[in-house]
What does this fold into?
Amino acid sequence: MSMNNKTAEDQAAPPVHPKITLGGVSSFICTMLVAALIVWCFISIDLDFSRTLTGLSKGMTSIGNMIPKSAADFGYDRHLVTSSTIRTSFAETIQMAVVGTVTGAILALPISFLAARTGSTPRWFSGAIKTFLNISRAVPTVVYALVAIYAVGLGKATGAIAIGFVSFIGLAKLYAEALESVSPGPIEAVRAVGGNSFQVFVYGMLPQVFPNYLATTLYTFEYNLKESFIVGIVGAGGLGQELFESIQLFQWKDAGVIIGLLIILINMVDYFSYRVRLKFT
Amino acid sequence: MTDRNEVISLRGLTHSYGAAPVLTGIDLTVYAGEFVGLIGLSGSGKSTLLRCVNGLLTPTGGTCVVLGQPVNRMPDRERRLLRRRIGMIFQEFNLLDRLTVLKNVLIGRLGYSSPFATSLHIFSQADRRLAISCLEDVGLGGVEMRRVRDLSGGQKQRVAIARAMAQGADLVLADEATANLDVLTKYDIMDLLQELVATKKITVLASMHDVPLARQYCTRIIGLKGGRITFDASPESLDDAAVAEVMGRSVREARLIEKRS
It folds into this structure.
């Protein structure tokens, strides 16, 4: 036995000189190219340092203007928060995000099942759906919002449609990826007891992907609250539209109140989604 | 010997994945009430054989008659109906870890229940009572509302056995069901399977690679090597040479393994 081991070791002795391989050379070239690209981007950004300093102080002043300092400022802010304009816009923002997320999630569920390469749909079919999802995902939300404005006019319905479509695309892709990573064991077990393909989906797959679905959906909701600001800028209603208008009119206090509301809202949603996710993992 | 019911009848069964043959002409008859151990190394075709029996795989050739029905020549719907009577337990348990113990056992009732109600996780009172009594039978009374992921390996395999019992299975296929368990738990699970055979008249076909364990519990041992049956004997008549042949070891080594355990 020991003799055999020795000869095996001799045969497998490592080469003395490290070889320069084709793979090694090409990965070195790739690294250098990426580094060059990064350096080029920094150089061509054309940042003027002398102007940056004064610009920075100007920027700080505008942010400073947003923060209330006197009792009068606080009174103004309180008055603003309770005003019907802000209350309506606040509600609109939440409505857009809720309707968009829920619609997106409901549409994404069946599509993700078709898009996932799990062997239950033909490969060319899931491939075609994935291609559609990838193409649609590359288009920014604002573009969908502008299209929706032509279709249904200005207002929160437009925002909900744009947000809903983008959520649908994003969630379908993420749901499909979750479905592709489920373990095949429980699926086989449900088939083995005589379950049909729908029962295989409900009992073999859904319980495995549920925590992932819940987390991605809640994250999408949070993200959609911010997205509603972006689509608000092109006239889709909500707090985003109010914010854009107040900045254009240099009403810094109003802008400050709206941004403050967004910060509170996002963090509240984040906290509740954390609690919900804890309960369902 | 006159009224021995055939539970499984395989004739010239072959299966291959692509070009690689896994089963090459299996002839095997299993009778009601037998506890058959299917021994062999990994890659010998044990799992493939079990999956041909319950129709999870369609063999590429030969016939496969199970509980009187031609599994490999049936429409999908009828095959699903037949599967309700064939329980299966696995090395990796294959339970839904996030669901409760009760829900996992109720999965055994899916084939009997309305697909619409079960998709909303609604099961009949009778099914729930049956599931709870199956859990009591495997010694897991009182844990039905716990999540499966909080159980030990041995408990998980008991849940899987309860699932097969809830199906009302006449035949149980066990795919390396004790390979992931510790030495003592192995015996608990084999005891349970033996009890199923004795009290519920269930037939068990169990793939395993633990020869002493097979010898201790099974009423009949079949050796599989390279997709072919190398022996088919009672545990008493199983000789060292036969074990060595199927497990790919020398006779001396096989004897040592036997002695150690």
In short: The first strand of chain B starts at residue 6 and ends at 17. The interface with chain A takes residues 54, 56, 80-84, 86-88, 90, 92-96, 98-99, 107-108, 110-111, 115, 118-119, 160, 163, 167 of chain B (CB under 8 Å). Residues 93-169 of chain B form one domain.
